[in-house]
Each structure stands twice: as structure tokens, then as C-alpha cells.
């Protein structure tokens, strides 16, 4: 093993270890910055490590909760245009089926017209004071939907399906 150079002057013995420490922490900071940049990605377009699903939990438990208290609001799950709250609803007797999702604004009003739930009911009050039912709320983009797995776990798929436009040209 080659012998390291000996630091002979007091200035060298003071500066070299400090410079090495500063360099080490600069490398650690760059690595952490790179990890943070990869995790944050491009908001709304899915980053490198983003999760496009949300798992509330057992479908039976959530079905009972919706039956007792009305639809459940999950704030800003889509996280693209400010507050994109998802409203999870269940109808019917089978907790593994009949799930639906809505956005927390009326279908006939803009996203800025938020609703608040009337406690313990399936009704909401919008920004204009109107009472609307859960079925009158806006639908999310195509592809965003609830899924119940074979083991009964409810998951919300938050991945919108890209819309395609077909163009036909006359011959």
C-alpha cells in the first residue's frame, strides 16, 4: 500500500481535513438531491417513483362505513389541479361489487365549485348552496376506478386512460 503524503505545515494540517469533510458532505447532498428529484418527478405526469394506486383497505369495512355515513371523501388523491378530492361510493348489498368514484364538485359546475358532505347522508352542498346527490357529482377521467382484489382489498386505480383521437382522411 502506498504511503500517503505527510502534511508538514500547520496550514496544510488545518485545511486538508476540512476540505475533505466539505467535499464528502457535498457528495452526500448531491445524492440526496438526486433522490428527491427522482421521487418528485413531474407532478401530474407521474414521477419515477410515483404510485398510481391508493389502497383504502378491506372492501367490507368500507362498504359498512359508506352504508352508515354516506360516501367517503379522500382529499387530493389525483393531485394535479390543486384540490382533486375523490368521493368513494358504494351501492348494493355486495361489498365486493358496486363501487364508484366521483370528483368533489357537481358535474354541471367547474372544479372550483367544491362540495361539502351533509354528515351521515348521500347528499352534498355545493359552492352555491345547492344540495346535490352523489350521482350528480362529476366523473373523474376515464380509467380512474375502484378495484376489489380477490382477497377483498379495495384499491383505487388513479391512472387515467389516455384519450386517443382517430382521424380519417378521404380517399
What is the helix content?
10-25%
Listing every helix as H and every strand as E from the N terminus to the C terminus, the arrangement reads HEHEEEEEEEE
The structural class is alpha+beta
Q: Numbering strands along the chain, what is their spatial order in the largest sheet? A: 1-9-8
> Strand tally, please?
9
Q: Architecture of the largest domain in CATH?
A: 3-layer Sandwich
For the largest beta-sheet, the strand count, sense and barrel status come to: 3 strands, antiparallel
In CATH, the topology of the largest domain is named: Rieske Iron-sulfur Protein
Outline = elongated
Domains, number: 2
Determine and state the CATH class of the largest domain.
Answer: Mainly Beta
- The overall pLDDT, averaged over residues, is 83
Helical segment tally?
A: 2
What gap, in angstroms, lies between the N and C termini? 78 Å
**Range of strand content:** 15-25%
Rg over C-alpha atoms, rounded to the nearest angstrom: 27 Å
Task: Please mark out the parts with pLDDT under 50 across 5 or more consecutive residues, or reply none.
Answer: 42-50
Short recap of the structure:
25% of the residues lie in helices and 21% in strands. The chain is built from two helices and nine strands, in the order H-E-H-E-E-E-E-E-E-E-E.
Amino acid at each position: 500500500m502506498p504511503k500517503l503524503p505527510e502534511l508538514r505545515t500547520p496550514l496544510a494540517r488545518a485545511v486538508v481535513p476540512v476540505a475533505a469533510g466539505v467535499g464528502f458532505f457535498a457528495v452526500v447532498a448531491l445524492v440526496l438531491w438526486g433522490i428527491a428529484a427522482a421521487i418528485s418527478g413531474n407532478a401530474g405526469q407521474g414521477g419515477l417513483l410515483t404510485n398510481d394506486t391508493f389502497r383504502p383497505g378491506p372492501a367490507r369495512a368500507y362498504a359498512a362505513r359508506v352504508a352508515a355515513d354516506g360516501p367517503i371523501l379522500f382529499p387530493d388523491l389525483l393531485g394535479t389541479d390543486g384540490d382533486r378530492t375523490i368521493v368513494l361510493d358504494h351501492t348494493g348489498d355486495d361489498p365486493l361489487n358496486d363501487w364508484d368514484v366521483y370528483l368533489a364538485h357537481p358535474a354541471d359546475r367547474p372544479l372550483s365549485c367544491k362540495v361539502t358532505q351533509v354528515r351521515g347522508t348521500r347528499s352534498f352542498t355545493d359552492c352555491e348552496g345547492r344540495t346535490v346527490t352523489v350521482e350528480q357529482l362529476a366523473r373523474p377521467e376515464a380509467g380512474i376506478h375502484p378495484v376489489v382484489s380477490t382477497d377483498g382489498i379495495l384499491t383505487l386505480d388513479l391512472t387515467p386512460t389516455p384519450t386517443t383521437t382517430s382521424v380519417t382522411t378521404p380517399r
